[in-house]
Amino acid sequence: MRNMNAKDGCKNQKVVCLPRVSRVIDIVSVLRTNKHNGFPVVDRGQNGESLVIGLILCSHLLVLLQAKVDFQNSPFPCGPGVLNRHNFSDFVKPASSKGKSIDDIHLTEDELGLYLDLAPFLNPSPYIVPEDMSLAKVYNLFRQLGLRHIFVVPRPSRVVGLITRKDLLLEEDGNTAMTELQSTSVRGLLNGRLLGGNAHLERPLLDNLVIE
């Protein structure tokens, strides 16, 4: 394993992806023919290339298929306010339950022909490693973090920043009795979000994940 990299560990596997706006019948087909716990979701980039925008869990797909409230006639992305139709508890599987199965969900022919925008329900920041990372390091990530999935991406060409351990250490503010991040840059970003600012966090690794 020490002489293998992340790309070697997944080269014999076919990546099963779902488009951001998928037909219901295609989602059902993927769930019936694959036992994966989650699937990459892809969208078109500015140059027409297919880019991964996140990870959607199988259990969340089943919730959406059973609820049916997010089905749409249009093959284009939906507008804001979609998440207001759901409670967080809808997507949490009880510890004592095996969860839903695709065989438990009944859809009509008309419903199978509709579309579902997956973007509001995916994880936009899955764990990602470069393709040349040692497979032993990838294995350690799975063990230490208890992961189910890691995306393997091409080696990124640029660096947008550097986070040190000190940036993430917590300190106690005696005046406000609030716990906050030591790093002024991280604190500024957090404050920008809390104040409704336009702080923008780039995702270079995710942006460089191209599905051929």
Automatic annotation (TrEMBL):
Keyword 4Fe-4S found: no
CDD domains to which the protein is assigned, alphabetical: CBS_pair_voltage-gated_CLC_euk_bac
Keyword Metal-binding (UniProt): no
GO terms, molecular function: chloride transmembrane transporter activity
This protein's UniProt keywords: CBS domain, Chloride, Ion transport, Repeat, Transport
PANTHER family: CHLORIDE CHANNEL PROTEIN CLC FAMILY MEMBER, H(+)_CL(-) EXCHANGE TRANSPORTER 7
Protein name in the entry: CBS domain-containing protein
One Pfam family from the record: CBS
UniProt domain CBS: residue ranges: 122-178
Gene3D superfamilies: CBS-domain (3.10.580.10)
Domain of life the protein comes from: Eukaryota
